[in-house]
Amino acid sequence: MSPTGLLGRRERNKAEKRRRIAEAAAALFAAQGYARTTTQQIAAAADVADGTIFRYASTKPELLLMVMNEQVADLVEKGRVAAASAPTVHEAVAALMGPLVALVRAQPDAAAPYLREVLFGEAGVHRDAALALVDGTVAQLAEILAPQVDAGGVGLSVEESARFVFSTLVNEVMRGALGRSPVGPENLTARVGVLLRGLGVV
Questions:
Q1: pLDDT tens digit string along 91-122?
Q2: Are residues 141 and 174 in the same domain?
Q3: Are 105 and 140 in the same domain?
Q4: Closest to 34 (Cα-Cα) out of 100, 104, 108, 126
Q5: CA angle 119, 174, 53 (to 5 degrees)
Q6: Exposure string (b/e) for 127-159, b if CB count within 10 Å is 16 or more?
Q7: Is residue 39 located within the same domain as residue 96?
Q8: What is the rounded CA–CA span in Å between residue 177 and residue 155?
Q9: How far apart are CA 22 and CA 19, in angstroms?
Q10: Cα–Cα dist 65/124, whole Å
Q11: What's the CATH number where 184 sits?
């Protein structure tokens, strides 16, 4: 076999192991929560050696980020598509953030530590990817808000307004994941209304 063919097979094997690890981790995090899932359980479910996991994610939190980033990326895209066809700015913001609320409701035991790692975790390739998802969502919010927000009137740029809306809503989502406040579409809509009124959007 040529060196090129050997390299190709190695890359395919590596991608296959990553896929198995990600799928096993996602299933276990969803079934029994992040805290109760060990990397040994994930390795066993993925049929890889214990140490193999750390070739793809250097720590358990990085593994959580790796797994959840894939889910969140899909949800962010669904939110973007829904927001594009929403008839009002309020509904567009709620549509963009709605999939994140749905994730928290479906997997609170994984979503809460994921959001913590995104906001406060240590630097790493998977956290960088998570922060890129955040920046992309904030940019989309800014695009939605730009025609509506009077930046001079509220004392914040459109970018700052978008980041304020995102941060506040994520904080509420996190409180919901921890069981400290209700989390659902109706609660999201109400909070969006309060925030946008504060920015002069009626």
A1: 999 999 988 888 888 888 888 899 889 989 99
A2: yes
A3: yes
A4: 108
A5: 55
A6: bebbeebbeebbebbbbbbeebbebeebebebe
A7: no
A8: 32
A9: 5
A10: 10
A11: 1.10.357.10
